[in-house]
């Protein structure tokens, strides 16, 4: 935002007034030149971290060993990092140690791609020793210097290259692409957390389908440290038309769609997400959605017509998985159906089912036993029986009947039905 840029410039001015060099660097320079809104502003300076700590009132020593101090201005934080060189990379990963230097160009040289290796001074001057502006105009992702060497230093850069190409709709320069394909096996040295961070940005980003395509072509997923079990992708199945993830808005639905398209069932998907270090909550949601998908297929939803049977299936799904999961499943099923309309020509019920299902779902009056107008202790009293396993069973049956609208959600009616069931089943 405007105020972020103003405050960032104030940080530059103070450093320059104290006799140091200071610039905006990296992603924010790239995004500013493209005309994209800035997410954050990183600053590079010739001042040492202890000097930065002294020059500003509010600071956080975020990563002193790497030269980074967070400076808190009125409304925005800024990461201020001392010019540095990364000597000695440790086994194709991050540098083992950093060396502070006084030359901006050397600092830019350690960066991954030309479009990420530019600096912007307070007066608007752009420092661009590697042709970042040329590559922005030519829409190219190009490694700074020798791509083989750069990917050898930090193999994660290969995934970053694909991510930037997709995010900006850029091509990948020939030598950079060749090096990427060549060095793909080095990815085994990179922690899965870092792999996950890049992948999830690709999937949530502006061109997930192209990302999958480039991943397949480069075969990078073959060399993840942990096997994520995406056989059809690593087989080189690159028919882009089949993915269509961009048509789904929600990133978690995109992941679900991807895993389903890769042919993974719910338990395989769970394993795959675990290896990817996916956060637990998100992973649970995706796995539950795939379970619901399997359940719906087993229940033959495609052959269920638009009448009472359709409503009933949706009601049972709502009780089994919760309405919110069923809502997501409907989005997923409609998306898939749209891609498959030709293939589903022989299934006239499927379209009718999907077009009615959202309405049915909203009409389902209850989804959990807590929604029933009678609770366990009341049933114990009504039936005059000590609590036991029968209680859960009975509540489940009442829930199903109520959800299916065969029984109104009213206390009297529920008690009456409970007595009938108890007699029938002779609890
Ligand atoms: P994003 O929009 O994803 O934040 P970004 O370019 O700001 O893009 P960051 O990961 O925030 O990416 O990194 C900031 C800058 O640090 C990059 O622009 C790049 O110059 C440099 N950088 C980050 N990671 C690497 C890396 N693995 N190797 C070399 N340089 C890197
Ligand atoms: Mg950034």
From TrEMBL:
Record lineage: Bacteria, Bacillati, Bacillota, Bacilli, Bacillales
Similarity comment text for this entry: Belongs to the tRNA nucleotidyltransferase/poly(A) polymerase family.
CDD domains linked: NT_ClassII-CCAase
Names of required cofactors: Mg(2+)
Protein name, UniProt field: CCA tRNA nucleotidyltransferase
GO MF entries: CCA tRNA nucleotidyltransferase activity
Domain CCA-adding enzyme C-terminal: from-to ranges: 248-417
InterPro entries per UniProt: Bact_CCA-adding_enz_type3_sf (IPR050264), CCA-adding_enz_C (IPR032810), NT_sf (IPR043519), PolA_pol_head_dom (IPR002646), PolyA_RNA-bd (IPR032828)
Keyword Transcription: no
Taxonomic source organism: Paenibacillus hodogayensis
């Amino acid at each position: 935002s405007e105020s972020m840029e103003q405050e960032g410039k104030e940080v530059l001015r103070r450093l320059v007034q104290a006799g140091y060099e200071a610039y905006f660097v990296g992603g924010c320079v790239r995004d500013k030149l493209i005309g994209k809104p800035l997410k954050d502003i990183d600053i590079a300076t010739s001042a040492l971290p202890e000097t930065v700590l002294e020059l500003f009132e509010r600071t956080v020593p975020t990563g002193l060993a790497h030269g980074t101090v967070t400076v808190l201005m009125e409304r925005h934080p800024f990461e201020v990092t001392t010019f540095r060189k990364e000597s000695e990379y440790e086994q194709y990963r991050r540098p083992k140690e950093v060396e502070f230097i006084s030359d901006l160009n050397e600092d830019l040289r350690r960066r991954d791609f030309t479009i990420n290796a530019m600096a912007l001074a307070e007066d608007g001057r752009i420092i661009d020793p590697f042709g970042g502006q040329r590559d922005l105009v030519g829409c190219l992702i190009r490694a700074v210097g020798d791509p083989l060497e750069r990917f050898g230093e930090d193999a994660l850069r290969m995934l970053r290259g694909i991510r930037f190409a997709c995010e900006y709709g850029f091509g990948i320069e020939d030598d950079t692409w060749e090096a990427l394909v060549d060095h793909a096996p080095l990815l085994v040295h990179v922690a899965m957390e870092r792999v996950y961070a890049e992948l999830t940005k690709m999937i949530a980003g502006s061109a997930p389908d192209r990302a999958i395509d480039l991943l397949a072509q480069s075969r990078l997923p073959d060399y993840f440290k942990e096997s994520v079990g995406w056989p059809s992708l690593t087989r080189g199945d690159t028919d882009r038309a089949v993915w269509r993830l961009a048509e789904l808005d929600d990133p978690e639905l995109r992941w679900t769609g991807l895993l389903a398209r890769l042919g993974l069932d719910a338990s395989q998907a769970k394993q795959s997400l675990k290896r990817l270090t996916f956060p637990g909550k998100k992973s649970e949601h995706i796995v539950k959605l795939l379970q619901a998908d399997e359940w719906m297929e087993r229940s033959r939803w495609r052959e269920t017509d638009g009448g009472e049977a359709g409503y009933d299936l949706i009601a049972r799904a709502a009780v089994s998985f919760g309405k919110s999961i069923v809502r997501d499943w409907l989005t997923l099923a409609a998306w898939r159906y749209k891609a498959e309309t030709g293939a589903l020509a022989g299934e006239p019920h499927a379209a009718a089912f999907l077009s009615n299902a959202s309405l049915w779902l909203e009409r389902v009056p209850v989804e959990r036993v807590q929604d029933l107008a009678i609770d366990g202790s009341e049933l114990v009293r009504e039936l005059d029986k000590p609590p036991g396993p029968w209680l859960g069973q009975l509540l489940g049956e009442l829930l199903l009947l109520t959800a299916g609208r065969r029984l109104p959600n009213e206390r009297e009616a529920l008690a009456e039905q409970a007595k009938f069931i108890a007699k029938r089943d002779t609890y």
